[in-house]
Each structure stands twice: as structure tokens, then as C-alpha cells.
Amino acid sequence: MAQFHDGGANRGCCCWLATASGLNVRITLTLADYPRATVLIACLKCGREGLLSKARLIAEHGPDVSLPELRHILAACPRRGQMHDPCEAVFPDLVLHGRAK
Asked: What is the pLDDT of residues 44-73, one digit of tens each?
């Protein structure tokens, strides 16, 4: 039986699927996978947050945009790519104590 688990630092955007054969497969969620009609994004570091229409985001970015990429687009954070001071934008609806819901 397959089991899902989050690697801990994925911020709800992807998870690992452990298959019965022992293979671990990384699954990246897309905007189409987002479970609500509105998308909540928040930065744990600076406190910024926003609530956006999923339908509008699909119209602008398409249903197949990955949530990690969408997170970077929406955050528009100058910290993107800075390993010493990274952006900490997350999708709070998908993350609970560092684990995907």
C-alpha cells in the first residue's frame, strides 16, 4: 500500500509517495490540486499574507503550474534564491506543523 509523507521542508507543495515496492517517488502538487476555491499564501518570516481566487490564478497561470513555482511568483520575494536568508512563503491551508495535511 502506498503511503504519503512530507519531507518536512516542502511547505505543503510536494510530498513523497512510498510504494509497496519500497520506491520513494516525489509528487509535486499543482494549482489544480489545491483543495479550496481561494488560495492562502503567507510568509513566516515577514508576516505578509494574501488570499487569492483559485479561478483567477488558473486563468492567469494555468491549472498545471506547480505550487512551488506559484509560491515564488506570488511571494515576489527578494530573498528568492538566497540560501543564507531564504523566503519562507507557505500555503498555510496545506501545511500543519511542517507536515502536509
From this structure: 888 888 999 999 999 999 999 999 899 888
Helix H or strand E encompassing 72: helix 67-75
What is residue 37's DSSP assignment?
Answer: S
- The radius of gyration of the chain from alpha carbons, rounded to an integer in Å, stands at 14
Give the least confident one: 4-8, 58-62, 76-80. 4-8
Number of H helices, E strands in the chain: 2, 8
Burial (CB < 10 A; 0-12, 13-18, 19+), residue 13, is buried
- For 101, the grid coordinates are 495535511
Give the pTM.
0.68
Q: What's residue 52's pLDDT? A: 95
Domain positions in the chain are: 30-100
